[in-house]
Amino acid sequence: MIALLMLGAIINYLTRSTLGVAAQTLMTDLHITTVQYSYIVATFQVAIMLQPFAGYVLDVLGLRVGFAIFALAWSIISMAHGLAHSWLGFAGLRGLLGLAEGSANPAGMKATSEWFPAKERGLAGGVFNIGASVGSMLAPPLVAWAILNYNWQAAFVITGALGLVWVGLWLTFYESPAKHRRLSDEERAYIAAGQEAHLKADGTRPSIGRILSQRNFWGIALPRFLADPTWGTLTNWLPLYLMTVRHFDLKQIAIFGWLPFLAADLGCIFGGTVSLALQKYFGVSLINARRGAFTLGACTMLTVGFAGFVESPYVAIALISVAGFAHQTLSVTVITMSSDLFKRNEVATVAGMAGTFGNLGLLLFNLVIGALVTTIGYTPFFIALGILDLVGAAILWTVVRERSEPAVAVA
User: S-S: 194 plus which of 213, 256, 318, 410, CB 3.0-4.6 Å?
Assistant: First the structure.
């Protein structure tokens, strides 16, 4: 199940990352300015902030049917990008894409909350989030190949068509643990025994007002607001940075542009592993283990501030790759906490609402980059990314409170 989810996340992030790699080519072809490009990116971020809607739909319709509908939509919308002929056309399509693709993280968190005991959710969430990194990693070589051999329109059609194939796989193989025919009674009992009794679904629909009234929601939403700009910078601005500042051509982008996302893959596994190790070997509680992994990632993020000061473009790529590793180390940790702190029937809604704050931070950061990068360069933004994550770590430690109800034994 987690492999199937990861594959869906790969295609989700591959389609959303296609624009960033093709940006320079289509901007030249369609005479799109840097400011207009920032508006296109911002439209996606505004729409993806409606993740609470996606999460609520998933909680109400169920994961199997709900996620299939969203994936079908984003695949068709991605392919339609090849028909756009102006920045306004791209902005409209990016808005629709953001609305559909906002379902990915709520779906992943809902699935991990249903399929895994508490002690394994961090690592399972890390495996799922590898999809984000792999999809973004595959985008530079695949999109560059499509552009060099065909055109930028073909890049959108190819990446979108892959999503249609995945929808068929999803509907064929996915089912909840309670209904899956190939799940043994022993496996089903193992999952149930390792989950917190006080977070069991109570059969009611999620209440957004009740969720907003809880400090634990704000304890995970605000760190996401501060941390998510890193991912937006990597996917939306890194190719342009490498071309305009480091003078890479499209072939060099294909060779080097995927490295930060490869490092991010390792960060996904590292974050979950650190959290698990803190619990197993040091007796740290589940929530404190999550906070510890986030803090480690935040401290590591400080290295990206040096990327703008080094002369070698390859050292800059290495430092940005460390940022990709650090970001996914902390990101997978805070995303997973929605399943640690809220009931099963609320997880997708909470993940979507927290995702709204993450994408709001990304939106604002993108708009500031678009407005100021031509005058002040990228270096101040690299420095800011590390500082924002440290503030996020402080909020995670001071605002989030562990539930007082005991969980069922997970040994």
Answer: 410
